[in-house]
Amino acid sequence: MASATLTKTRGVLAVTAAAGALLGALAGPAQAAPPEPPAGNWVRVSVMQGDGPTGDVRHALLRCPAGEGADEGVGTGRSGGERACRELAAAGGDIAAIPVADTACTMVYQPVTAYAFGMWNGRRVVYAHNFANACTLHASTGSVFTFDQ
Fold it and tell me: Rounded to an integer, what distance in angstroms lies between the CA atom of residue 92 and that of residue 26?
């Protein structure tokens, strides 16, 4: 009987060791921690040209308030950072709350999609919207999605 108990114990230990080795192999190497987001108010903005996933994408990191130790629109081709920060501040960080400009836009269909995410006064900012063309994008969002030409 002692022999049967010893055999069972060895079997349980072997299964436990095999499971531990398998879990260790599945865990893989340790991953580096993601980078810390910028301090203060910031919004990562992107505009994708076209109506499919293969369009050109422009992006930038907008840090606000611009001029107080933060770069004015750090990123790819970013311009108008101070104005965009003022518009976001007036809208409480809510891009959808920026007043629509009284602008005449053509009816040409050249779709763009605007994306934004970030932090504003401790709250998350998330925005995604499709526009018929760049004119309607800028009329609806002010300077937030303005890039150098």
Answer: 45
